[in-house]
Amino acid sequence: AQTVTQSQPEMSVQEAETVTLSCTYDTSESDYYLFWYKQPPSRQMILVIRQEAYKQQNATENRFSVNFQKAAKSFSLKISDSQLGDAAMYFCAYALMKTSYDKVIFGPGTSLSVIP
Amino acid sequence: DTAVSQTPKYLVTQMGNDKSIKCEQNLGHDTMYWYKQDSKKFLKIMFSYNNKELIINETVPNRFSPKSPDKAHLNLHINSLELGDSAVYFCASSQQDTQYFGPGTRLTVL
Prior knowledge:
The structure holds two protein chains of two kinds. By secondary structure, chain A is mainly β. Helix content of chain A is 0%, strand content 51%. Chain B is mainly beta.
């Protein structure tokens, strides 16, 4: 069974600094998708970034980038120039998506605090 | 425009009551989901519907009954509410590889 692990329940970063959130997953599949979702105090789940496993190039969205290590089954999120609005729970997620309705498996989340 | 909407956003009720949460998506997606987020923020899928057909049922008690009148709507009805049902319930929809979430419904059972 696929699992997603986030070993850092809580992290903090100084405003304008860079922080990296860790994620590892377990799967026997070769083609799948990985995601980072952000959940601010408003509780809305917001897609931050997605990565297709067959693409070697790491995904980037503005200040957010990932380090995807397929062999190591690692998918970390780097947030550059951290802003107060980045404070949130961050969930790493895995989806097989062989069909359009494959379920997404979420990690337990990392709570990120941004210190002014 | 709201892509995935849920009503109500907050629901407070007594144990033993029956309640429903509604979800609608205007993205034209074929697949909709219900997730439960517990007090520890753990997010777990409950149900998935594809074109009004139940695809995934993750060993959820049969007190929970999803209903999909059309592919744009997936409602969740809960019978005989228990204290442990208190959680945030998220609806989501997807067409290909990415899920889009509603704002969540915080259910509190007293």
